[in-house]
Amino acid sequence: MIKVLVVEDMHVVRAGLVALLNDAFGIEVVSQAADATEALRAAAQTDPEVALVDIDLPGMDGLLLARELRSRAPGCRVVMLTAMDRPGYVRRAWEAGAAGYLLKSVSPSELARAVRTVTVGVRVVEPRELADAAGAATPLTAREAEVLRLAADGAGARAIAGELFLSVGTVRNRLSAATAKLGARTLVDAVRLAERHGWI
Known about the structure:
Blueprint: E1 2-7, H1 11-23, E2 27-33, H2 36-46, E3 50-53, H3 62-72, E4 77-82, H4 87-95, E5 100-103, H5 108-118, E6 124-126, H6 128-133, H7 142-152, H8 157-164, H9 168-181, H10 187-197
Parallel strand pairs: 1-2, 1-3, 3-4, 4-5, 5-6
Helix pairs in contact: 2-3, 7-9, 7-10, 8-9, 9-10
């Protein structure tokens, strides 16, 4: 039996996933969680082989949770199961160490097949077009994306500088560079564009 952890904050969706997977041959849901804290605790207690993780979780998001799971439970393969259909999120999932990326619109048979596939070391992306589009690189450097992500959370240049141990001038330069690279007129437009593509 393949042991699975389901991490989804919406109770009805989580219950549906658990029922679907427990009906699939050779798969057993050994634990479930509504957020990252519960997920890390459950992973430590039940040692799952696969974790199905939503990106949009309260508190720590699913991408950060994927990193933590890969670090704390290296035998657990993480599959993102999300409504986020942007290629940038697929790239970020790979960077976080995820083994799969599925949209919530997949069929029950595709979901079960993906769980089985990642256990043998093969990456899974559904729909396939997302994987192809994810090959297009972000125009932002990692540092530009970092300051833009903090700006998206409402932090000003001074607060970002304090958090990243940079000068205010350096932060402003990176924000300006990111805005210019994205062809945006304002910082707000740059944030919206980067979020729409999943680059931050």
